[in-house]
């Protein structure tokens, strides 16, 4: 016996396509804005910044 007694042929993914597309557009925009902000002068030397210039091997930050 299945968990649900009846199967209803309701489309699930097809009506959600615009929401998936909007989510991808928002994620791309947030990522590009974050990358642009990490490259600004204010955060260029922050040690948490992945784009920061690498320090010398023996030097601690």
UniProtKB/TrEMBL annotation:
The keyword Transcription regulation does not apply. The chain crosses the membrane at residues 12-30. One of its GO terms (cellular component) is proton-transporting ATP synthase complex. InterPro entries: ATP_synth_F0_jsu (IPR006995). It holds the Pfam family ATP-synt_J. GO terms for molecular function: proton-transporting ATP synthase activity, rotational mechanism. Residues 40-61 are annotated as: Disordered. Keywords: Membrane, Transmembrane, Transmembrane helix. It comes from the Eukaryota. This is ATP synthase subunit J, mitochondrial. It comes from Monascus purpureus.
